[in-house]
Amino acid sequence: MTQHTLRLKKNADRRLKAGHLWLYSNEIDIQATPLKAIEAGAQVVVEAANGKALGVAYVNPHSLICARLVSRDPAQGLDRSLLVHRLNQALALRQRLFERPFYRLVHGEGDLLPGLVIDRFGDVLVVQLNTAGMQAVLPELLDALDKVLAPSAVVLRNDTSGRRHEGLEAGIEVVKGELPDPVLLEENGVRFVAPVLDGQKTGWFFDHRVNRAWLNGLVAGKRVLDVFSYVGGWGVQAAAHGASEVLCVDASGPALERVAENAALNGLQGRVVVGEGDAFEAMAALKADGEQFDVVILDPPAFIRKRKDIPNGERAYGKLNREAMRLLGRDGLLLSASCSMHLAPERLVDVVRGAVRHQDRLGQILFQGHQGPDHPVHPAIPETAYLKALGVRVFRD
């Protein structure tokens, strides 16, 4: 099956032996195995410096992460058989965790399928192929999905930034069946329309399910502000769990149209209103108008995409949290989240602490959340743990 080998430099196998799946281009012995001679997406047998076979990986010689391990058996590459096996493993976990078929089915390295993301919306699957190696086995993957789940429709959302870095074309395509209109999902007992063709990522963010469930228990009778609301995952759920009024703010008009649609789907249109605009400007305008809220939700996009962005990103998170706290009443609740992998959890605590003191208020951390269990963290790959959420009481003595 594999035609090439990839020989590592001395001691460059330590991370693989510790459980990691990635190899970097500076770890390859390019004298023994010229990396540039290997076609992007090809599978290779990885060898230690002494020639011992360590497993099979797929390669992209043009990427800093030049290889990703898919099997520790040198005789077993990433084919239909292994894909069926890994998909069955992933499915078994989700069926143990959830009663309804709405979840992330495959979370890349966390499910030992690096470069692959699959979200499930009932009988509809939305697939992201983020690497050349996964793109190369697309036919086998579609066969494996038919074998394991027999979905009625499969959507390829190949419009991620990761594909550009891998030198792959972008596009969105329904590759099997026809999509129902609308595509529906259910989370924490609330129904939503999932914009799988034109929404962000796969159309929905299942990763905050557990964090939303925690907040849902504290919003009854409260006035709630949902900033960066997208299609209302936080805000509509808050209304469904008894919030007296919810204002959803987002810069996207189409996303806010989905908020209204999702509110109506649950009979909540009388308690959910929307406001279009930049988050910082919208919060400043609300403060100028004397508005106050019992609960403010901050779930922004990643402000830190690369390590070099950390200083500016932390300043942006700080400003965001300060502006949010200005809108809280005397004894309010802030839900502050970050999906920036490069923002360490303790740094988000520092950001919130600094914002509390800047407003001359007191803070108590009531909840520390992370990504849900359908986004499993690979214990050897810290990069797979990216999501943080803090529930903070902000009050005056």
TrEMBL record:
Which processes are annotated in GO (biological process)? methylation; rRNA processing
- Give the molecular function GO annotations: methyltransferase activity; RNA binding
**Which stretches make up the S-adenosylmethionine-dependent methyltransferase domain?**
104-350
Q: Principal place where this protein is found? A: cytoplasm
* Listed GO CC annotations: cytoplasm
Keywords linked to the UniProt accession = Cytoplasm, Methyltransferase, rRNA processing, S-adenosyl-L-methionine, Transferase
Q: By its UniProt entry, which InterPro entries does this protein fall under?
A: PUA-like_sf, PUA_sf, RlmI-like_PUA, SAM-dep_methyl-trfase, SAM-dependent_MTases_sf
Against SUPFAM superfamilies, the record matches this protein to: PUA domain-like, S-adenosyl-L-methionine-dependent methyltransferases
Is this entry keyworded Electron transport? no
Q: What is the lineage of its organism?
A: Bacteria, Pseudomonadati, Pseudomonadota, Gammaproteobacteria, Oceanospirillales
Localization terms from the record: Cytoplasm
Question: Under which name does UniProt file this protein?
Answer: SAM-dependent methyltransferase
In this chain the RlmI-like PUA domain maps to 6-72
The entry's family comment says:
Belongs to the methyltransferase superfamily. RlmI family.
UniProt xrefs under Pfam families: Methyltrans_SAM, PUA_3
Instruction: Write down the species.
Output: Halomonas ventosae
